[in-house]
Recover the amino acids of this structure.
């Protein structure tokens, strides 16, 4: 991370709050009121701000302070946070520091997940076009407990470089640049994905490359090897099929990993140099292949050895493409959802493919 920190070594923060007492100049407000019921508890014990809420909490208290964004392109937010008891937090929950721009965009500095490490976390946030000011705040809006300490905000831009090549706008940090082979590979993959997804040429895809997962989290707030949003791919790789598929397939839907990762592996043609169909056939013959019902549950998919889960998912999508065509994959993407229950997604798959999942799996395995 020395590369990312170098440009900020002598920066002067525009906001510093240690939370040793109730913060001066900050405003308290209640967010997301959900009718009658208890309000989250806020305390300032031992030099931190502490939020507590439970399943009965219906109103959540936030503390925030506005800052001027005139001439500002980036915000750099440092904070020390601990989080516990948030196992069932919604995907968009805020558990700690956040920035709310006057454009309406709200950016949590980290994903809402349990953490006991109190070391400083840094988040780089690009200021949206047209934003004139922002609220920097702290909040817990789900059941759990959060403490925040040593909140600092700086406006010094990080060392991000950009270039336009083909169908992409590329971004990278410091000297972690792309090579010509990366540009060529991404253009080839873009053409393949566009043809499969039925996309027409539009705005360039923004591709952000980071030196490691720590840097990716600092710019996206997510702990992951890649993060994809509509037409934007963030990755630790210079050419990443999964990140590009996520950036381009938004119009199709957001399906569970069995389908999404399966399509990525199918389009790439292999997983870690393993041919999906051959690898799955070996698993079936050895009796180690997980069932489709197992792989349809995102938690169980993640718990399986990746050489089993990803290769079988790729082989499954390959079978669907070969027997029913790409349009059926599109229908499956639209009928299922990463946020739906495994049972609901199973029912959706059975409806699209016109058979019980056990019959689908039997036919799939017979084709191997």
């Amino acid at each position: 991370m020395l590369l990312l920190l170098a440009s900020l070594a002598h920066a002067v923060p525009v906001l510093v709050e240690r939370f040793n007492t109730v913060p001066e100049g900050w405003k308290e407000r209640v967010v997301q009121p959900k009718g009658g019921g208890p309000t989250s508890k806020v305390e300032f014990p031992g030099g931190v701000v502490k939020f507590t809420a439970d399943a009965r909490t219906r109103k959540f208290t936030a503390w925030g302070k506005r800052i001027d964004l005139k001439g500002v392109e980036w915000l750099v937010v440092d904070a020390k946070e601990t989080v516990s008891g948030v196992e069932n937090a919604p995907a968009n929950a805020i558990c700690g520091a956040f920035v709310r721009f006057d454009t309406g965009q709200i950016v949590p500095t980290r994903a809402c997940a349990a953490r006991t490490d109190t070391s400083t976390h840094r988040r780089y946030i690009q200021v949206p076009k047209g934003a004139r000011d922002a609220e920097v705040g702290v909040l817990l809006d789900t059941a759990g407990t959060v403490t925040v300490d040593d909140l600092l905000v700086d406006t010094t831009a990080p060392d991000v470089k950009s270039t336009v090549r083909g169908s992409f706008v590329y971004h990278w940090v410091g000297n972690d640049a792309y090579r010509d082979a990366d540009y060529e590979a991404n253009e080839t993959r873009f053409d393949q994905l566009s043809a499969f997804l039925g996309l027409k040429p539009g705005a360039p895809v923004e591709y952000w490359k980071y030196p490691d997962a720590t840097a990716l989290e600092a710019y996206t707030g997510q702990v992951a090897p890649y993060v994809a949003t509509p037409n934007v791919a963030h990755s630790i790789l210079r050419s990443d099929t999964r990140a590009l598929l996520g950036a381009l397939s938004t119009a199709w839907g957001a399906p569970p990993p069995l389908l999404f990762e399966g399509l990525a592996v199918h389009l790439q043609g292999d997983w870690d140099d393993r041919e999906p169909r051959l690898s799955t056939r070996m698993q079936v013959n050895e009796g180690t292949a997980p069932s489709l019902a197992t792989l349809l549950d995102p938690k169980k998919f993640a718990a399986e050895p990746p050489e089993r889960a990803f290769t079988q998912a790729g082989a499954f999508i390959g079978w669907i493409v070969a027997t029913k065509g790409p349009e059926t994959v599109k229908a499956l993407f639209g009928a299922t959802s990463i946020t739906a229950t495994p049972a609901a997604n199973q029912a959706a798959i059975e409806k699209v493919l016109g058979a019980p999942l056990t019959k689908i799996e039997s036919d799939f395995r017979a084709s191997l």
